[in-house]
Each structure stands twice: as structure tokens, then as C-alpha cells.
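seq:
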Amino acid sequence: MYVLAVAVILFEMRRYLKKKKIHFFSIALLVCMAVVSIVKSFFLDFYIVPTASMSPTIHSGDLTLSLPYKDRRDKLYRGDVVIFHPSAFPSFIYVKRIVGVAGDTVSFNTNKEILVNRKPVRIEKEKNNFNIIYEGIQDRDGKTYQYMTDRNKPFVEPIYTTWHVPDGYVFVMGDNRDNSWD
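struct:
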């Protein structure tokens, strides 16, 4: 709908500007920039995924569009993917999946299973038969470094504990849990 409105506006402007000798493309560029700014401000946010913490679902460098839910935690459900600025690093963005919602108890067992309210969460496993492969690790600036990893051992030692999710909060994790620090 917005595209059609912009096309009609640009067509009418072109007819008008032919008489005024103003360069059409400079005006069209300004109109497009204004439309993108309005859409970004009120309807959609655009983000580039900074790390591979959501791999294989969402890859580093992917462009994402999200609805700007500012402080609207009442509409978030388990399994939703959220984009947020962590309080410890407000200039960064994190892309994570909601594992637990308010009132849930989230825990891990020694088999690396995630339990929500004592029920295991089903996780799709990557179909990779190799044990040792070369992968990339990314710092917060988006630079990628190669390292060798053993898929049978975790990237970060697991924490076997239990968390209770308080009201107004959600518990989030990346899909690439064994190879992610954030």
C-alpha cells in the first residue's frame, strides 16, 4: 500500500517538476528517504544481525525487520524472536529467542536439555556429522576470526542452575547455544 502511494506521488511530482526544470531524481530520492524515515519511526525497525548467536535460524549479516514494541512485554510468547539493546551494552543489539516468560522456571540438566517448568524444550539439532570443523567467531564489531571447534564439547561450559522469570521479564537465549557467549 505504501509503495503504491509513493509511486503515485512520484508520478505526479515528475509531471509537475517537468515544468519547473528541477531534477526529478533528486526530489525522488528525498521523497524515498522521507518515506523510509516515517516507516522506520512508526511501523518497522530495520536491523542487521551482528553475530551468529541465532544460527542456523538467523545468520550474521541478515537484515531483519521488526515491529517497534517499546515496553510492550505483554504480547511476547515463548518461541518469539526478539531484538533488544542489553542494559550492559546499550549500543549493541541482541537477537534472541524467548525461552521463558513471566512466572516460568528455566533450568538446564547435564544432558544440555533446557527445561521450562520441568518440561524439556524441543530443539532442532543441526545435521552435522563432523566432530571437528572450522568455524568463525565474531567480536562485537562484526569482525570474524577462524577457530577449530569440537562439536562434542561446548564452547562455553554449561551452567547447571535454575532461574525463575519475574513479572515483566522474559528469559532469552540464542539458537546457537553451544557456540555463543551472549
